[in-house]
């Protein structure tokens, strides 16, 4: 199986940022209220008082106030589907898996539209609370093992040092910088350390 990160890997940009910008044009006051809440929690996160998950929930809380959320997410995805990178579309296979820290709420919609069946992302409940942990770093491997025990990763692709555990678990691994695929080696100096 081939495993891909989503944001800045097979998608040109960050979907969290894009959904915030897209939503700011349509619901500016809701987004500003969410950002204000997130800013307060971010200070507490930096002091070690609250988890990162609480900050992320606050930042994206406006999505869970929308009465037509599924339709809204579909429109967002349709407006941004062109940002899927052509190098990925040209090598896509039926057993690709996307594992992302972004919410499954929209990552699964992107993936369905381009024919990726297997998606693991940050899960939320109907109120926007994150279920479990944000799907990043070692959590990606843990979540993969829950879905496919003893998974054998043929290749892994990511733009970020956050995915070193995933890259090192693969037989072959690539760092994605824009549209360039660079063979990963231990000690690689990532441009993206998000």
How would you summarize the topology of this molecule?
Elements: E1 2-4, H1 15-26, H2 28-46, H3 52-59, H4 69-80, H5 86-89, E2 96-103, H6 104-114, E3 118-122, H7 138-147, E4 155-158, H8 164-169, E5 172-177, E6 180-183
Parallel strand pairs: 1-2, 1-4, 2-3, 4-5
Antiparallel strand pairs: 5-6
Helix pairs in contact: 1-2, 2-3, 4-6
Characterization of this structure:
By secondary structure, the chain is of the alpha/beta class. 42% of the residues lie in helices and 15% in strands. It has helices at 15-26, 28-46, 52-59, 69-80, 86-89, 104-114, 138-147, 164-169, and strands at 2-4, 96-103, 118-122, 155-158, 172-177, 180-183. α4 (69-80) packs across α6.
Key terms:
194 residues, alpha/beta, 6 strands, globular
For the largest beta-sheet, the strand count, sense and barrel status come to: 6 strands, mixed
If you compute it from the alpha carbons, what radius of gyration comes out, rounded to the nearest whole angstrom? 17 Å
Helix/sheet category: alpha/beta
What order do the helices and strands follow?
EHHHHHEHEHEHEE
Q: Based on DSSP secondary structure assignment, what is the total number of beta strands?
A: 6
- Which stretches are poorly predicted, pLDDT < 50 over at least 5 residues? none
- Write down the overall geometry: globular
User: How far apart, in Å, are the first and last alpha carbons?
Assistant: 25 Å
